[in-house]
Design a protein that fits this description.
Elements (H helix, E strand, L loop, with lengths): L6 E3 L2 E3 L8 E2 L2 E2 L7 E4 H4 L12 H16 L3 E8 L5 E5 L2 E7 L4 H12 L7 E3 L3 H9 L3 E3 L1 H14 L11 H15 L2
Parallel strand pairs: 5-6, 5-9, 6-8, 9-10
Antiparallel strand pairs: 1-2, 3-4, 7-8
Helix pairs in contact: 3-4
């Protein structure tokens, strides 16, 4: 049986992403609660960012941090080509950025991460449009999301999040529900 989770974002009930793992053609159904392993340099151009920009990785990290905050997701993003002095992992809240040393690739680092996850890899989604990375993710039983599809998910999360200083307005039904909740508590 396939069902869809509904979430409340920015005062709107959304049906953002299907939740079963079935695939038909190019469309994917993705579990909403899975953490993500992301091929960063593969995703950057899909968001309209430039790979030749000096800040491309930090721009993507900022976008992914907002996604983690809005969607309450865990993300690990991999970037290859880091000079030895800058290689390593950095934990930034729910996001971990892995800067893979020059001479190795993010693709290989993702493959190694999937191997280390073992059987729990099936609980993760891998974001890449690289066919080899996708094949290795499927072999590990991880969910696969193309970079294009994930870019759309990021845009939807961004569009649904309240801006700075904005408060989400409660619907009349939500106000009634809260009033009933507090009234019931007062009589107990």
């Amino acid at each position: 049986m396939s069902y869809t989770k509904y979430i409340l974002l920015g005062g709107k009930v959304r049906k953002p992403y299907p939740t079963s793992a079935s695939r038909t053609g190019d469309s994917h159904k993705v579990q909403l609660d899975m953490p993500y392993l992301i091929d960063g340099h593969n995703l950057i151009p899909k968001l309209g960012l430039r790979l030749d920009s000096i800040d491309d990785e930090m721009e993507l990290i900022a976008i992914l941090q907002e996604f983690c905050r809005v969607e309450r997701r865990q993300v690990e993003v991999f970037f290859d080509g880091a000079p030895a002095a800058q290689a390593g992992s950095r934990k930034l809240g729910s996001l971990t950025a892995h800067f893979v040393r020059l001479g190795n690739t993010a693709d290989n680092a993702i493959r190694i991460r999937l191997e280390r996850l073992g059987k729990s890899a099936k609980n993760w989604s891998v974001v890449s449009s690289d066919r080899q990375v996708q094949a290795e993710a499927r072999a590990a039983k991880a969910e696969v999301i193309s970079s294009d599809s994930f870019a759309g998910m990021l845009k939807q999360a961004h569009d649904s999040s309240p801006g700075p200083g904005e408060e989400r307005k409660l619907t009349p039904k939500e106000v009634d529900d809260w009033l009933k909740f507090f009234e019931d508590r007062r009589h107990k």
